[in-house]
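RECORD TYPE: protein structure
NAME: UvrD-like helicase C-terminal domain-containing protein
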Amino acid sequence: MKHISVRVPWHDNGWNSHVCANPRCNTFCKQLPNIVNSKVDCEQLSCGIDWSKLTTKERPACAGENGGFMNYKAYEREFIHIYAWNSDNPHSKLLPTKVMIPAYSALGIPFRYLNMDAQKDLSKEHPEFRPAESAPFGSAWVYNPERLYDVLKWFSSEITEESICVFYCKKGNPIDDEGLRMIVGMGDIVKNCGVQDYETTADYTYPLWEIMFSHSIRPDLKESRGFILPYKEYLELDENIFQGKGLSKIQALDEIKLSLDKFDSSGKIFDELSYGCDFISNHSMLLILEAARRSLEAVIRHGLAGSIEGWQCQLRWIDARIEHVKKQITPFPSFASALKALGIDYGNLIESDLRKKGCGPKDNPWGHFEKLLNKEIKVDSAVYNSSLPTYRISWEGQTSNVRERLITLSRFELESDVIEHFIDDVESDILSNPYLISEWCARNFIEKVSTRTIDLGAFPDPTIQGDNVPVPPFAAESILDTRRLRSLVVERLYSVLTDGDTLVSIKEMEDYLRDIMTEEDKARLPKNILLTHRQFFEVSFDYVPDENPTAIQLKEYYQMEEFLRKVLRERAKRDVKKPTGEDWLSLAMSDKNYDPTNERSQQATEQQAKALEMMDKKRLSVLTGGAGTGKTTVVRSFLCSDKIKAEGVLLLAPTGKARVRLSNMAENVSSKTVAQFLASLGAFDFENMKPRLTEDSRKYSRAKNIIIDECSMLTTDTFHALIMSLDLKFINRIILIGDPYQLPPIGPGRAFSDLCHYLNCDDADANLKSAITYLRTVVRTIASGDSDVLTLASWFSGNKPEKFADEIFWKIESKNLKGDLSVYYWNDEKDLPQILRDAICKELACSDVELPESLKQKIGIDDLKSLESDPAALENLQILAPVINPAWGTYQLNSYLQSWVGNNINRKGDYQEIGTQKIYKNDKVIQLQNILRESYPSKEKYPLSNGQIGFVKSINKGHINVMYVGIPHETFGFRGDKGEDQDAAIELAYAITIHKSQGSDFDTVFVVLPKTGRILSRELIYTALTRAKKRVVLLVQDSIGWLREFTKPQASVLARRNTNLFDYSVRAERLNIPYVEGLIHGTAKKGLFVRSKSEVVIVNQLVNAGVEFEYEQLLEENGHRCIPDFSFETPWGDRIIWEHLGMLVVPEYKASWERKLKFYEEIGYTLGENLFTTCDHENGAIMTEEVEDVIRKIKEQL
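PREDICTED:
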């Protein structure tokens, strides 16, 4: 007997065998290829109509993907074999076969076991199966009916009325932006209909791949054995209802959702919820049931959906199923895997035969195995009989310690490679501490093993282990066992790396442990347990700081940050031995954009010359600045130096697109992606796509100058691997370039941002400060004037905007934009397509009818010969969105644009399926992998990079031939590969995610911004706004008002990260925001974060003086709006304003303040009376005396 998982598409009407209530908005189901490729357009059907009223051909495609597994009445479904259309195939004799689907039924296809790649291992487990045959054409699936019947009947035989069925959404749901593996319901199997045949006109037939079964879930919770989680009901409730419960809608959904994070992000459960219909092990089922119990407890606690009595019935069902599953678990679940680790084939078959020969489900199979080896047990005609003498020699040749370790390891659900490691690692004392297994697996990113995996074999439980209960010192007798707690902490420290944290506060970690204890056994975690047992715990992780610690950190990350801190700091302090002596000012002035008559141009050139001198002089230097400030110009000027080029230059970037852009800055200069560079030195693990330094990794010592662009995208471990891979005694200069306010890296740390703020902090010495140049003058708009886009973007950077930058919000709201920014509004998913289409028409100055041709012209696909010579035209226009799956996500937007361009019109066969998309000739696509690929016609190999934009030049014999920006006249072939599981090499790129756009820029950018979404942050919006070279078109949901909230420091995802690279920046608790100087500025006023260090001084002194104030409170006068720094209200109701002026030495800032001052004067504010100012001095500091003087003058009026 096995439990099973069944994949279902997201359905907004409870999977009730009706059309969705709002089909247009349910784009999540389109991650399944059979749905996205359906000829039935659900948007044309009546919302909510019963499927039984439609013919089979009229039904939505989700009817064939278990979209109606909660059908309350039977309906008929017709099956047509996918190969039946071809008269050369034997399948052409198979007839359309009608099957009645009973009420509350689903169908499952065991794709894992029907794939040809699985047949070799399957034959070892089941030598009785008839041989598998491949199709005579390109197909991944078993072809011959004999093998199909064997596999399907075996799979079906394991599904009984004792099995539990778990229904899950694989990709795409409205609960979670990531959308990976979310369970929607579970229940008992009540009937298995077995393997069914196709009707046929021949004397042979083939089986239906679908195995049909009925389940026990019912809408009435009191009558049901199983449940559907109330996601639908929660989504339909107003946010105010949740606030009445003291939480947000997102928080409530997080508490009830059953996703991978509720199972310790189990890689094993992820795998079991991946193949359409698959087996779920008893161990995994136990984890799922325990997590489901916690979810239902949250539903009951919220009291927002269904009757509490009904949900309590379901809790009793869960408890009964937990007891049932425990009885099914064997005490040695990895016996077969242990045999495989020992080099013994047919482990599963041997175990099965031993069970048939008297080894009970709760017996120890090892004794029976020895009897088999000694011929005390005989299995006639077993395929392994001839190997038994060899197996006996192997077994008897093991030491008693190895045998004991094998038996011990088989108590846990482990795969053979893990067992093999611990057989060899005799120094690992797993016999007294089995939790070393889960610690090692966490350290090696083996996600299929967790602390809970070890719990099931370490805690004595006769229901699971029968008479084979573990005993001390091996056994765990309390959930507070320090061995177990240490394992949980190690797992958590690795888990939070994906959130960006390189360390965690002791308090937050103890809160995390306390929550686990409460969920598991209502046990109370002793206070300060991590400090009390420090000696035992610090074997696996470090305490920070060493004396009076307040945080803990993985040892390797402690060492990484310590190494980076030392190397980056010391190289930044030091100068190269022999600077080139170039006249950098002359080089900077030679740029074609230099205008000696323009003050801003002069100042920008002076800043650039200063940057060039720094880059020449320092052994490590940082060049940073916002969008349009000339970082590219500086690098290009630097590479114009013959002296620099004579020393050798290596250009590196984290993305392919950034590498291509770097390579265009100079001829005959080597450029690579960071992954390519590390791989060339044996320092990159392509399987896990992570840096990996080994004893065999080599040091780089060719070019003396290393320039690394887009450094904000580098994780701490990648930064560490890069520096470690350089022969530092040989390298003259390391030059780091980037914008620290863009999106942080996907992974641990924010090394570049931390470095920028360390070099630029107030107490940094002069040597350190001389190693960073922050370009502040915007050069992109010197000729055209102020940029509305960059003004708006400045609000989402980590810097205080210019003084009259707040005018941009008034300009947007009053529709007074005249520059490079346009804003459109959409209400919901229904009107977004038309709003977007109208906006594109307006921007392209075309009518609706002319849109297809205008779009083609804009991105160059109207003139393919020109495009082949210079594919860069593809980047003239780009649409960006935060995420993939929702109706406002890139998947649906690409569908709209593809149809508007018209590549898919009247071209039925001129496409190829890749993943879940149909890609046509001339379609715009994006590369998704970093690969080396041969081109046509030159036959040369080119590095294709993740993020590189291209177009489909041709489709031929199942291959898509793509031409990329930066590689004219060459095409690269990709084989079509249909299916949501395929690791696609390319996808449509009319719309891409904002994350994917990082490191790229485009002429005109359309940005779709929904007002809801977990992924929204200050950095995300800033990154989107700074992708355009010429124009940005914002499509904002509802109004611009909510967007202003994301300008606040609290909206920074970068600042939320725990790091300890230069400054200790760690959250005290989960909900707190850590802050480090320069990233986010906390104040003495509770909950108030400000935008500059000087404002911290002002706020703290106001608090000390007992003066009430408002920070950045909107001021509306004469139809205009602005946002003062500080506002005060007099007893008679007048307002006093205090503005702090930060960068008056910058011409744009000074001009901006003068415009704002004029506005204040026009509405009745006078300096020294009801308008006060302070300013930063040349060293960037604020004078305390000046602050005290202004406070005294304001207090006199209050």
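COMMENT: The mean pLDDT is 91.
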